[in-house]
User: Fold this.
Amino acid sequence: MTVREVYLDNSATTRPYPEVTRAVVEAMDENYGNPSSLHRKGVEAGRAVTRAREAVALSLGATPGDIIFTGGGSEAINLAVKGLAPGRRGRHVITTVVEHPAVLNACEQLKEQGVEVSLLPVNQTGVIDPEHLRAQLRDDTYLVSTMYVNNETGAVQPLADIAAVIADFRQSGGRLYWHVDAVQAYGKLPLRSKDLGVDLLSVSAHKVHGPKGVGALYAAPQTPLRPLVAGGGQEGGLRSGTENVPGIAGFGAAAAVIAREAGGAAAKIWSLKKQLVCGILAGAPGAVLNGPACRENDQCSAPHIANISFPGLPGEVLVHALEQHGIFVSTGSACSSRKKPGSHVLKAMGLGEHLLTGAVRFSLAPVNTAEEIDYAVAKTLAVVRELRLLYG
Amino acid sequence: MYNTYLIRYGEIGLKGKNRPQFERRLMDNMSRALSKVGRAKVSRVYGRLVVESEIEPALVLERLQKVFGIVGVSPALRLPLDEDAVCVGALQALKDAVPGLQLSPGSPITFKVEARRSNKTFPKTSPELNGMVGGYLLDHYPGLQVDVHNPAIRVSVEIREKNAFVYAGVVPGIGGLPVGSSGRALLLLSGGIDSPVAGWMSMKRGIQIEAVHFHSFPFTGEKSLEKVRDLCRLLADYTARIKLHVVHFTDIQKEIQMHCPEELRVTIMRRMMFRLSTSIARQREALALVTGECVGQVASQTLESMRTITLVTDMPVLRPLVGMDKEEIIQRAQQIGTFETSILPYEDCCTLFLPKHPATKPVPAEAERAEEFLAVDDLLAGALERTVIEDITARG
Assistant:
């Protein structure tokens, strides 16, 4: 018996589009040259990288020259956070408590170099208050790093308000750079880096149906970056090492889909998310949606992530029980009975123990269908009913 | 280069009539351990086991150090039948055996040359060889001092048919008996720290292990099963391969959870595990069960619990950890390489549904009463029917 496969863990990674796979294979099979080589094979490989850079730039509303390819989202984030030169006065960084570990741990490393790091709190839906940011800004603040969409809850940070606070600060003579971790927003929310007013913005290919091991950092002109990887000077000297041509070509193919679909994908995922959340909350007594309410037009919530707690049931067991029906989801974060780390995001939102351990994340993609969501809702309700008998 | 290894095996030497059998087993195990890294010839020469191989010596030693039954290995230089070559070789072997050997006479290191000439066509007799080689070594290292009764270093010279052999050092082995020489037993492998160590300790006594793991998907995930497979692979390093029986335990867990009194759940669960293990052991012609239990460690490991649980089997239950403290068990787990894998944080079925106050002194009668609510035989049959056997081989 073959169990059907409904993949709802798209915030962990996504299934590559067929055109992505084709682009990767082509770059390995035929276009295998080194872009630095002088001969034709090199030139052709270089051209593939250039095309991909243009596609990624287009999808981000940026200029190709402002795109640096990296070895993934985490590396892009590290380059932004650790590669940014603090300048003469800079010794203070502000970020939020709900950031991805790539940001938080990069900031920990900054601390070792004597940089002071302030963490902005979030409210119970996981969103920061821009006024808190205003209060934390200091003369020596040189970097603000905020995420766009939270990877665990789908909470959307108020970028426009943050931009306004930063603009005020700059007007009064402050000098800082703003980095946005847009890994989870990419392909789901409008992302025009120039309109957003960000200086640095990180994205990853495999979250948008591209290959793993490749990402990009958008850096506005004149942003003082120093490389983390020294070598042959590829990527404008900011990311040395022979270009990952297959990965970059695949990324380009995925970016082309994003640019082509513009907002179309988001509307479709929104309706799937509503179907999923309403179905589960209506049918599973006690289930709670963590993070912002599921309302399409209030712009607080991303269209593809729904974090739902089933109090009293371990999230890990729910994940495995759904897996038996071919449905792939994830827990808020790994959690075992021996250690109870729980999710730092859900904790920061003030969730109690019961909600923390029972949290499950469903994350959607444009490739999911309404019929799949029906199936997932039905099976989730059945599994929860069955486990309730055992866990009381 | 060292390309000959004299194998020292203490305990096997004591086994009267069984000795050839033990030796054959040890030779097979050594050949298998070395076959992964290259060509090696294992043979019995002049009443000793000898390995000959052109593989990098460090690699050979590393592999042989995972073969139970070996007490020590002496890497030897194979030399032409030539007096100068023997002297130079002896000096080399001495230097390798005593790193940092002082040139000057400070605190002297005592040594002795032990020459044996089985090839009588060689011009020097054994006593003459002792004098010649000893003198040569003293000329190069005035810091040495001859002590024929209680030397710190013994430099051995053997003159054979075609070659001379020289060796000085002994690299310690892990001891024990060759795996397979003591029959087969079934190890209850949970994925924690203790059971892999218990498996290793029984293998050390020559037991061929098969493992049984109780899997409760979806209550435990694929990752926890993968962890158990990884532990089996680490243990297989000492024996080449291990059969892993993965028992479908979910339905039993559910039934216990729904029908048995909370404080007795662990007791009943362990009794079911022992019953299943007994059936598998019998089917596999294993002679005993092995567990990682250690008296007093947790509720199910009090003597009262052990008695109530063990009553369901008529097989001997070996508990090699019974005399060890947790700290010692952890140290041993680190030494054999299973610790890092064991502490990965995945649920296992022992921590699942763990009652807040498990019974520490369950008596057999209460356990039997609690089991009246279960269709024990049907549950056992169902679990056995869905048991999958996996063949886990050692790492490359």
